[in-house]
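[09:14] KT: can someone run the structure on this one? pasting the chain below
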Amino acid sequence: MLKNILSGDLPRSRMLSLLLAAIVIGLALAPFVTQGARPLNTAATICIYIVLVASYDLLLGYTGIVSFAHTMFFGIGAYGVGLALAKGDPGWAQVAQGLAMALALTAVLAFLVGLFALRVRAIFYSMITLAVASSFAVLASQYSDLTGGEDGKTFSAPEILSPAYTLFETEVFGRVIDGKVIAYYLVFFGCVLLFLFLLRIVNSPFGRVLQAIRENEFRAEALGYRTVVYRIWANCLAALVAALAGALMALWLRYVGPKTMLGFEVMTDILLIVVIGGMGTMYGAVVGATLFIVTQNYLMELMGRASESMAAVPMLAAAFHPDRWLLWLGVLFILSVYFFPTGIVGKLRGLRRA
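[09:31] RB: done, structure tokens below
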């Protein structure tokens, strides 16, 4: 049964299986095993980034397309839901309306970008997508009457997702089931379904053709496959999943802004997570997103404690000052690439084969 759920793509490594099981169980039980808003926000962000990174890996790892427009589609999904909820009464009708408009715009833009840009090669396509994404981010920042400009927009979610809403009068396993918990499980199960959908795609005949295009596009064309059509389809599917991830992020944060949804920092994080987890492996998104988001959220705090404990050695205390957390994050990334050149998942599967 598990093999069918995972579309026949099993982890193929005992260590990887244990790691994935620990991550899934931890995310599933996060509201009941953590206290406070920060850990739950970290868990929700991990869920969303798993889907966002997996959708990008469909392009980069499975098709060989380097795109910098992925955050644009993520932002479209977030802004679609956010602006719809900000206009009127926050209800599911507004969510559906905003999501439908966002998905329609995403499909059109992804098709047009793919149609005109995928006919060029390598770096030229990347530069085109970067220009389109940058233009969209500038538009969102400047069109302040609609989008809120640099400040973004805050809005109310449907009542059932409001922290003031309580589903049961009594606690469940020591936790009040309020709107925040319901919102978290909406994000969690939504991301699980989207991830399984992507897993099904890459293990279908369509996914095999994408991998053939990645390995040798000319041979795939010689076998009769219209590679441009397959690349456009991959671009559209990845964009639509990214838009859905953006919609979930908007519902969770109840806020949309250009830096949070459209910033190039988000694209950089996606690329780092893909490399850390392993390109061409959907499970790499799970492992990479978990490690990266946890490190990003707690590294500064750990460094602060380390700096205080080393107060007797000023040089070490200064080296581990929380202000230098980006430096140490970069060091950790370099070490992960050096010791895991095929990503963590690739390394664990390689150990299994060895």
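[09:33] KT: thanks! The chain has one domain: 2-353.
[09:34] RB: yep, looked fine to me
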